[in-house]
Amino acid sequence: MKQAIWKLMLAATVAAVMFGGVLSFAQAEGTSPAVTKEAPVASSYTENIVQGDDFDKWCESMKKPCDWFQWGADFQYRAVYQGNNRTLNRQSATDEMAYDRSRGRIWTTITPTENIELNSRFMWSWFDFWEPESLEGTTTSHGEFDQLNVNLKNIFGEKSSLKIGRQDILIGEGWLTGEGTPLDGSLSGYFDAIRYQYEFEDAVNTADLTYIYNTANPNTWLHPINAPGDPMWNTEQDEQGVIAYFTNKSVENTEISPYLMYKKATDNDGVANAYNAELYTPGLRVAHTVDENWKWRAEGAYQFGRSDKGGDGMDDVSAFGVNSALQYFMNDEMKNNFRLQYEFLSGDDSGSGDYEGFDVLWGRWARFSNLYADAVRVDSRAGDYTNLHRVGPGWSVSPTDKATIATDYYLLFADQTQDSATTSNGDAFRGQLVTSALTYKFNKHMTGEIIGEMYFPGSYYANSNNDTASYLRGQMMFTF
Predict the structure, then answer these.
(1) What is the three-class DSSP state of 10?
(2) What is the CA radius of gyration of the chain?
């Protein structure tokens, strides 16, 4: 019964999003009346009540009771259905998974002096499983500090900062740096790191220098609060890293960012799928605004070093990666935005003697798809994208000031064919992926989101792992 309900919800969600998109496009083209955005006439006092001005002011005064202390909180509720995501095999015991996830966070900032900030954030989450039957009724919980750091401002000159401790780090689009704890999903993504950022006096050049020390075992630094039998590993192996990232804006409407990333992975705990590696990744990101309508960005990186990820001992690494996008903004009333994306991650040629699989370093998160981040488990690890060509168009539109619909379609190919129990030797077509998200901002404090995704595997996969997969998520987010 639950399976039928979830499938009905998935079909209704996709239909609703598609209908909303078609209606929005028709309105943008003038085939139906435009959305009226003019507010009704009201007195000044009534407008303040409707817009929540008084409540917002009260929240701000509550969150900052004095000059040296401020705090905040949020609560996120998700209901998730995953259809055949992890194995692409309907005969699997985890063919269908359904659960709800709640996560509450509270954070504080203490400013004892003008240039010193002490930041903390505590997160508590809990899951209730509905499917599969073996997990029905199971409840797990997890709590930990996912932020705990000191931020020293203007320490080596003006417009500089040195942040020491547990923190979030997102560089660029998060292609190679955005997730420090991939095994806990989207609960957190923190890094235990030291990060120094500096803006030069000319305001044209910036430097971003980071040292990372992440451990697989979450008990190494700040012992989390886990449900019994739930270790909630951060990642499979201990990881150290150094990132040197520079940005130059001397060319009009252009950002040029050369960088070098170093990562050392060490299997100390014997976690499944752990590996050892020492990788060097020099790269370059360029982003350019052509005019008010056109934008593009392109990022490329070469990777070398040593790794045993190929399963044949420590091999020399020689790998490449590209991530790019071209966007067109109509700048119309409904904010239509069309895009074309292309990503390339080299795959391992098993007969070469070297390892050519591109490692996305700390980029193991749902950058473009929640579903596909799980589906790569079939021939890799969760979120560990490699051996991939991804190309496809996308479209975003805002039918109202509060609603946004974003839809993308991708064709996926493997760079190298693989011969294994789950893949089909000689075929490179990974399949087709469709993602669509409807986001609605009720007000400053509350947003809602519905995401629907479908994956149609291609001939790259063996017949045993070639079944259609689906993903549906409803979410509410409250921020104080």
Answers:
(1) helix
(2) 24
State the CATH number of the domain containing residue 470: 2.40.160.100
Q: Are 281 and 301 in contact (CB under 8 A)?
A: yes
CA-nearest of 235, 153, 158, 159 to 191 is 235
Segment among 24-33, 226-235, 296-305, 431-440 with least mean pLDDT = 24-33
| Domain around 111 | 2-479
How many Cα atoms sit within 13 Å of 305 on the Cβ side?
22
Span between the terminal Cα atoms of the chain, in Å? 37
Q: Is the pLDDT of residue 362 over 90?
A: yes
Check: CB of residue 208 under 8 Å from CB of residue 171. Answer: yes
Coil vs helix vs strand at 224: coil
DSSP 461: B
Sequence-ordered list of residues with C-beta below 8 angstroms from that of 137, at least 6 positions apart, any chain: 128, 129
When divided into structural domains, the chain yields a total of: 1
Chain mean pLDDT for the chain: 88
Query: For residues 182 and 239, what is the distance between their CA atoms, to the nearest angstrom?
Result: 12
DSSP code per residue over 17-86: HHHHHHHHHHHHHTSSPPPP-PPPP--HHHHHHHHTHHHHHHHHHHH-SBTTEEEEEEEEEEEEEEESTT
List, in order, residues 6 or more apart from 455 with CB less than 8 Å away.
85, 88, 369, 371, 372, 375, 431, 432, 433, 434, 468, 469, 470
Say how far apart CA 295 and CA 19 lie, in whole Å: 28
Residue-wise DSSP of 90-154: TTSTTSEEEEEEEEEEEEEEEEEETTEEEEEEEEEEEEEEEESGGGTT-EEEEEEEEEEEEEEES
Q: Is 100 exposed, middle or buried (0-12, 13-18, 19+ CB in 10 A)?
A: middle
Alpha carbon 390 to its chain centroid, in Å, reads 16
What DSSP line would sit under 349-361, residue for residue?
A: -TTSSSB-PPP-T
C-beta separation of 397 from 405 below 8 A: yes
Cα(342)–Cα(322) distance, integer angstroms: 8
Q: Which residues pair with 305 in a beta bridge?
A: 279, 317
Question: CB of 463 within 8 A of CB of 442?
Answer: no
Asked if the bond preceding 40 is cis, omega within 30° of 0, the reply is: no
Write down the pTM of the prediction. 0.87
pLDDT band at residue 52 under the 50/70/90 scheme: low
Interstrand relation of 69-83 and 469-479 (parallel, antiparallel or unpaired)? antiparallel
CA neighbours within 13 Å on the CB side: how many for 376? 20
Question: Helix (H, G, I), strand (E, B), or coil: what is residue 165?
Answer: strand
Is the pLDDT score of 45 beyond 50? no
